[in-house]
Amino acid sequence: MKIAAFRGWSAFAKRLIPIVIAGLLTGYLSACNFSLGGSESYPEERDRSERGAGANSGTVFGEGGLFGGDKSNAPDNGASGGVGVNSLLWRASLDTISFMPLVSADPFGGVIITDWYTPPQTPNERFKVNIYILGRALRADGVRASVFRQTNDSGAWADAPVALNTSTDLENAILTRARQLRMSGQQQ
User: Fold this and answer.
1) Which residues of the chain have pLDDT under 50?
2) Distance CA 148, CA 165 (A)
């Protein structure tokens, strides 16, 4: 009776034994410490050219560190500085919407989000602006603005349409301010 119960065991063992042996052999060989050549001690000083960097390169963040170094001979295109986007567009965006309260300003991602602003002339409507700076170049397509508007209908704020040219006008105002900042920087 016992023999009949284990009749299929030999076929299972024939498949299992090579797998177990291969696993043990892999574990045994991976624990071996065989020499592939080279030095046994860790080199303390290495030439910078060995790492693929130039002999006078700076740190991982580039020459001058994270926030930049000597930029006296660099062209003033607004792409330099400690921000991840065009610094002229960044400053121009903040200048243009300086009357609105900020919720978030991320200079590395190029995102500016304002809180709702209610103009004193129209207390029954409020506006919110999101500005996206899309790159490090000072270009007309380097900034995008989204404008949201709500009106107060009997105590509840409801979304309302915004004039089609509002976002474009805001983008143009930012670009004009960026040009002014660039010109004032070149005259100094």
Assistant:
1) 1, 42, 48-58
2) 13
Percent of the chain with pLDDT strictly greater than 90: 44
Residue 177 phi, psi (nearest 5): -65, -35
In a domain, residue 124? The reply is yes
Residue 13 lies in a domain: no
Model's pTM, two decimal places? 0.57
CATH number of the domain at 140, please: 3.30.530
Domain hosting 129: range is 87-187
